[in-house]
Fold these 3 entries.
Entry 1:
Amino acid sequence: MQTEKVDVLVIGAGPAGTVAASIINKAGYSVKIVEKLKFPRFVIGESLLPRCMDALTEAGFIDAISERGFQKKSGAKFVKNGRICDFTFENQHTPGWTWTWQVPRADFDFTLAQTVEKMGVPVEYETTVTGIVFNGTDSVTTVEDIHGHKKQIEARFIVDGSGYGRVIPKLFNLEKQSVLQPRKALFAHTNDIRRSMADEPNRITAVVHEKGVWIWIIPFSTGVTSVGFVGDHTFHDRFKGTPEEQYRAMLDSEPYTKERFKDVEFLFEPRKLEAWSATTDKFYGEGFVLTGNVTEFLDPIFSSGVTLATVSAQTAAKLVIKKLKGEAVDWEKEYMEPTLQGVNVFRSYVMAWYEGTLDTIFFSKNPDPEIKRQICSVLAGYVWDQSNPYVKNHDEAPKRLARLIEVTEKLNPTA
Ligand code: FAD
């Protein structure tokens, strides 16, 4: 069997894999990406957060992305029964990026992969990892192309950025169930012909449809808008027929989407995804590090996926470089803890969202502007800023605030 040698093998050419590959390549090490699919390929996850711009900058991707003319995103809007809570990233507690993009991921990910290739990182498409043998930190990975040709890649280190493929956790039985309840999404890309009469395209909208059920609306610069319904199986089971019939019935069942998306054309048959939350005990091991969705993917509500993917890849890449230089790396302290910090803050907010705690806060009658700025920073992805009480006390602070709002509004119902 043919054998190749690289310093670092990266599995997957999504945002995690390409960010890690670019940063390691820039430090002078040989890197190769193997990617199971042919690009451009569809993947969901179209609303970015400002915090990922730091990682994309360090990876050297910002100019190439800017040239694509993606829709700029400057905030997020939450809607419930006609009430609106608008967050604008300019009004946030943590200094940082105040905007990002809304992107069709096929184009976005292809841009990242083409850019990293131009930087000198070969990307081998339609090549799947089928086995890995570790010998200390060195490894031999077996890959297979779509014609069934196999070869081996020897590497000094592996970065697993295989997303929902979860290559290393699956090969080495590291999979663990998430504490989050399984949910489903039904979504499509729509020809948003009534957009100008309805919403501003420079932000995403999350509509609270009923308890535990919400809708994402993500406008792209092309005039196409991504719309998805997220809820548990009891919600989805209420809709019968083909995916298109179910999806049209869902659009009709919410006043906010009924008017705007009535009879619009879909760019593909509505697709269903379910039970996406997954994790592992440890995000590293001898000779490998897990990045992006392979570490833990929570839930789409706060658009945290690409941000956690790129930030974990950015951190991992720097530690891999340190390791290859022969320096000591404390993976627990330097990787696991910061990566978990981001995941844990978002997990608290995801749980608070489904419990209704955030509804109480977002749709309160007299929101405190300073607290709104602090929560806005969480929604912008600045979930490592310990000066923000809504990051530092991510579990308790939203609950305490919601209780206070409930009591105040009960005492002053007309205020
Ligand atoms: P991916 O983007 O999945 O890339 C991994 C790559 O690895 C893929 O190209 C895959 O083909 C490749 N691969 C897999 N197995 C192998 C193998 N054996 N060998 C070689 N290559 C392999 N995130 C957001 O930020 N914003 C959102 O609005 C958002 N909405 C979402 C909505 C839903 C319903 C869901 C389920 C998720 C959403 N996400 C969102 C999350 C987002 O999809 C992911 O977090 C993000 O794509 C993770 O990036 P990644 O680089 O880790 O993995």
Note: DSSP finds 14 helices and 20 strands in the chain.
Entry 2:
Amino acid sequence: RRLDNALTIDDLRKAARRTTPLSVFDYVDGAAESEVTADRNVQAFRDLTFHPDALHPVADPELEVEVFGRRWALPLGFGATGYTRMMHHHGEAAVARVAQAVGIPYGLSTVGNTTVEDVRAAAPEVDLWFQLYPTSQEINAELIRRAQNAGCSTIVLTCDTAVSGKRFRDDRNGLTIPPTLRPATIVDMARHPSWWVNKLTTEQVSFASLKFLESKYKFNEIADRVFDSNLSLDSLDWIREQWKGQLLVKGILSAEGAAEAVEHGADGVVLSNHGGRQLDRTPAPITLVPQVRKALGDQVPILVDSGIRNGQDIAAARALGADAALVGRAYLYGIMAGGQDGVARAYEILSTEYRRAMQLLGVRRSIDLAARHVSLPDT
Ligand code: FNR
């Protein structure tokens, strides 16, 4: 009922704010430093202009696309986000199940709270990706092997986390993973009882994929260990040698960076500023799509994320030259608002909006979305 009342992703965000402890909501909603980039990401989509084809009726648009030789129901994937069982006890398995049910890919994070094996068991057919935060070669090799055994099609190497971005909301809220009991936590429990009941009655896992690290190091040390300040093109070369599947590099913010990643073996790139959670004051990735497409040519898949809150945004990404878009917060607001049903609702909202955008643009198939249908400011 509550989910039916959510008509937009922003409605899900408001519902999430009510159902979830503030420290958890802020971990998702917040971003780095002054949060300039996080705002800019969303604003960049609002600043785009659509140019519909007149008198091109579209009764039943064909939404699906083919990326990496696979059929996606929509040019959209659920991107990797850490600690999803903190947002809601349904966690990563629920996101994977929805992705499987609708026919889009899901990327599991290295710092997910569910192992790649458990996600695969929950969603045997989903196009599963594994997002890699490389640590030591020994651990990387192990994670790559497990991703392969779990039938992941793709490894996503995240390259914008030399160190963790500074997110002041988390400091101010005293966020710890897992949550620690403080006086403020007890007040919060009274305000969000069902979140806490679920938390306390389901199994707690902090670093599912890196469990073997957990016994060796304290929590805060692990966080530092997960991010590799030495990640380089050599690391990419090494991963390329180890991994025979699809390899994506995520966190690219320039045509040069994209070309370099492809020269070093990436099969595609994800233009991303990590949803504004890493370096603040970076460009909105959507504005870079045309120049990166020009640099890489027509054959290399380009994905884009950061700031997608509406199906129109996905249509714009596609029209500007991306193969597909990824979302993080959009489905996380959904899971916080209503667990697996909330993730399904987020997808339903985005796909309905995308379909309507196609009809109003007069575009019958996703592959027909073209540069003439959207313009960036000053172009
Ligand atoms: C993320 N993101 C992320 N990326 C990644 O490569 N590994 C990770 O573990 C995480 N964790 C994570 C947690 C949370 C709470 C958020 C919101 C994001 C970044 C994510 O994959 C994606 O780049 C952004 O979420 C895209 O921006 P939007 O859609 O959230 O605006």
Note: The first helix runs from residue 9 to 19.
Entry 3:
Amino acid sequence: AEVRRVSSVQGVGVPAGTVRLLYNENPLGPSPLALKAASEALDGCNRYPMATVFSLLEGICALHGLSLASPGSAADLGALFEAFEASSVLLGAGSSEILQAVALAWGLDGGEFVEASPGYGAVGSAAQSMLGERVRRVAVPLTPEYRHDVEAMAGAVTPRTRVVVITNPNNPTGTALTLAEITRLADRLDPKTLLVVDEAYIDFAESPGVMSAMGLAASRPNVLVTRTFSKIHGLAGLRLGYAVASQPVRERLRPYLLNMLGVNTAVVAAAAASLADADYLMRSRQVAVAARTQLLAKLPEFGLKPVPGDAPFVWAKVQGDCGPLVQKLARADVLIAGGQRWQLPGYVRISTGLPAEMDMLFATLGAKA
Ligand code: PLP
């Protein structure tokens, strides 16, 4: 019965009772205020979304201390576009769309993309699938502590490097860099090389010195920081992400992003409401941190070696190949990610879930095969 209750937030198309710990989704469901705002916004979906986008933009700029010009009248679409373009913000259908646009805008003339391995790899893989042999992916192994090797990444930069990507906290390992480490990397890059800092999971970070690089995006010409409403805000199915960058970076991306015209009224209204729902955001963080703490403490009891991290998921080394373990859990409808997704079959990545879902996970781990 407990699991059925949990399944009410599983979403469309997921069988009741499935414990879904494999895509780093928010197990709480969205903020009730976000849902209410989205349904109210649907009522006005015969209108273009610009005025709604502008209220979201105000929320994003306030959150990061970015300036935003007043557009005057919300009915004047030209003024809204102008004020949007003067802001430091870019919008996408998920941060994925922005990462893909970066791949195209910086890869079109060829060059190298430097990323950590194992890592999220979205920019390099998008560049490769769109541009083929014109681009080269440079995969820099993590340190033995599973962190980005900042020194090695800086050392991998050549005159052909177009983009260096830091995913902070990293996916799949959950480890995070301090802002000081990211700043040191930024200091070493030629201003023509773009530093992308993907902060999909930054809201879940607690380690000392791990902080957003938004300040760098606002103050340097070659840093772009991405955020998403898919994780801490629980809106993955509605698709919305944003980035902050300097005017030259935004100009270079402009041909490849629809921005205000590429997002829909429902998600924009939901996102604005969610940003203002401090209580929901606190609960999202608490659920993830509690489950993470539990995973770090308990996985060793089952022979797994978890990696301490700052994300709403945990990367863990298993004994031998992860296949039998992943399958045993799957037979009990507990789904986790096997490391072969990253060509590392000796590992698993387990997303954080609700307390009842974590209980199911541990009960199944402890059960006989
Ligand atoms: N960046 C990282 C590190 C992710 O793990 C994900 C999704 O899992 C994304 C970006 C893409 O998220 P979205 O397109 O939903 O914003």
Note: Residues 24, 94-96, 120, 122, 167, 171, 198, 200, 228, 230, 236, 241 surround pyridoxal-5'-phosphate (CB under 6 Å).
